[in-house]
Design a protein that fits this description.
alpha/beta; globular; 26% helix; single chain; 423 residues
Length: 423
């Protein structure tokens, strides 16, 4: 039930009906519905080359968007183009619009098939309906409210009180520079992400300190640090971390547009003052010619986080033979990506595409775990505190790793296009 669909009737008529849950893809959408209504929870793209689409989405009464990462919001404009209401927090609505613009830009540059028409972005804006924690909404016959999910700014969990059903989206259960930790809420049925099944995170504070110390060491010996980062969330978090060092920092890529959007929503940021302070201390690359100036700085935060393209390849081509400089990875590198190639072999393709020969990267390489997802034991602890009877695991490639820890619950690992009935 990772990203998906849901449908329902009038709130007062729910209790004697059956809630049907369908998984469109383990990572791209989920749906649940009743005979007279249906909702869609997220509708994303798998960010490959070219991006992969999930199963086609059925007609729904509304789409509930948990957050604005591409694997959750990538195809939302396609649903909005039908005239379907799109429900999310205000900041997620703005971020999803920017992500959609970038999706079309990349598709045009790479000659990928366009996933939706440009006009669908206007439909997304026109059909967007905001929801905030504390408010109650009714769509497709369902009553629902939202809770903070802690994943990125604006990310929420959807709670359906009459069904006693909680859908988490992506969650994190510790505070970060940008976000407040997600809190458990009691429910009878819990659908929860399982991205880090079988894997744990080191202590967040210790990891942040190690990263800051490592950056400082490189700068003190006269080197530069390149921090590849995801444009949404990670770029801004890294700026907040390195601001403490008082060094010359540059930001390149989509992260600068995301920064401007986040500044409009102080309530979505855990440390809004700290974020703004970091932005004031940052030099923004607005034109390609400014990259020459950025190369004279100390730290460069730049997309893309998995090194498959973007300005990061330019900067790494400049420092790759400089043993006093460094590239520090702070996000998970999916197998098959340029970042995974670098992490495993010390080599990197400096141009997009598999035809580009891997080149040696002789600067310092180090990885830091700053994930925005809960780790295995954090997910188990969250589930235990929700105290459900039934647990639905989605959005993960190793869901079986939870079997022993969750043996006291009715555990469901749905397959693609499988329907689950919840009384």
């Amino acid at each position: 039930m990772m990203t998906g669909m849901t449908g329902i009737r009038q709130p007062n008529a729910f209790k004697s009906q059956i809630l049907r849950w369908s998984l469109g893809s383990r990572k791209n959408w989920c749906s649940s519905g009743r005979d007279n209504g249906r909702l869609l929870l997220d509708y994303g793209l798998q960010p490959d080359d070219p991006p992969k689409s999930p199963l086609p989405a059925p007609e729904v009464d509304a789409l509930l968007l948990t957050h604005a990462h591409l694997d959750h919001c990538g195809l939302v404009p396609k649903i909005a183009n039908r005239g379907t209401p799109i429900v999310s927090t205000p900041v997620t609505g703005d971020l999803a619009e920017r992500m959609a613009q970038d999706t079309l830009r990349v598709a045009e540059i790479e000659n990928f098939p366009l996933p939706f028409h440009k006009s669908a972005i206007s439909d997304l804006v026109q059909n967007h309906h905001s929801i905030l924690p504390g408010n109650v909404e009714y769509r497709g016959g369902f009553e629902f409210n939202v809770y903070n999910a802690g994943h990125i700014p604006g990310a929420v969990m959807y709670n359906f009180p009459q069904e006693d059903f909680l859908f988490t989206g992506d969650i994190h259960t510790v505070n970060t520079q940008l976000t407040r930790a997600a809190k458990p809420h009691q429910c009878k049925t819990l659908a929860i992400e399982s991205t880090y099944g079988g894997r744990e995170h080191p202590d967040r504070v210790d990891t942040e300190k190690e990263l800051i110390d490592s950056v400082e060491d490189v700068v003190n010996r006269g080197g530069q640090v390149v921090l590849p980062s995801f444009g949404l969330g990670r770029s801004q978090e890294l700026l907040m971390l390195v601001e403490k060092l008082g060094v010359e920092v540059w930001l390149d890529g989509m992260g600068r547009d995301i920064a401007r959007i986040l500044q409009k929503y102080p309530g979505s940021i855990r440390d809004f003052g700290g974020m703004n302070k970091a932005f004031r201390s940052t030099n923004f690359v607005r034109y390609a010619r400014q990259r020459k100036a950025a190369m004279k700085g100390d730290v460069i935060v730049t997309t893309s986080g998995m090194l498959n393209g973007g300005p990061v390849l330019h900067y790494l081509s400049e420092i790759r033979k400089d043993s006093s400089s460094a590239v520090f990875l702070t996000g998970f590198q999916v197998p098959g990506t340029n970042g995974h190639l670098l992490k495993e072999t010390g080599k990197l393709r400096l141009e997009r595409g598999d035809t580009s020969p891997p080149m040696d990267i002789n600067c310092q390489l180090k990885s830091f775990d700053l994930s925005g997802h809960a780790g295995h034991s954090q997910i188990v602890d969250f589930i235990n505190k929700c105290n459900p009877e039934k647990v639905i695991l989605y959005h993960g490639d190793n869901r079986e790793a939870f079997s022993e820890d969750l043996k006291d619950y009715e555990l469901i690992l749905p397959l693609e296009n499988e329907t689950i009935e919840i009384n």
